[in-house]
Please model this.
Amino acid sequence: MFSAPAPVEQTTHARLIVSTHRSALLRVTLRYRADDPLAVRMVFPAEYALDAAAPADPAPADGVEWVFARQLLASGLDLPSGEGDVHIRPGLGQRTVVELRSPDGVALLQFDRTELRRFLWHSYLVVPEGQELRHLDCDRALAQLLS
Model:
């Protein structure tokens, strides 16, 4: 019987840049699944959502999730990369800057580059770089898009 590889999950810290002189340290969960081989996920605590939820709305139990291409994360470690909502670029020292944009605002985060490389390396053990399409279930992906 075939069993899917276990998902990769790594918790790390990021520094949310609030202003020139203010920042906040927060825990971020990085996730990768073989059944969604082109994507990585970053899950942030719900209180750091860019859109302020109405008081009656419950906060998401698992936090706020951003999904973007694994290749974007890989390329952004070495060169400024990204168009649209997610931009990733090398920062000073061993930092990587992730910029997340939504209609509600922009979040600028700094990660330890070594932590992001470790996460990518573990994801490549599950689905090697360049082999993503061999793991993609096109019928399921199309059904999700149309639902």
Residues 113-126 form the longest helix (14 residues). Confidence is low (pLDDT under 50) at residues 52-59. The CA atoms of residues 64 and 91 lie 24 Å apart.
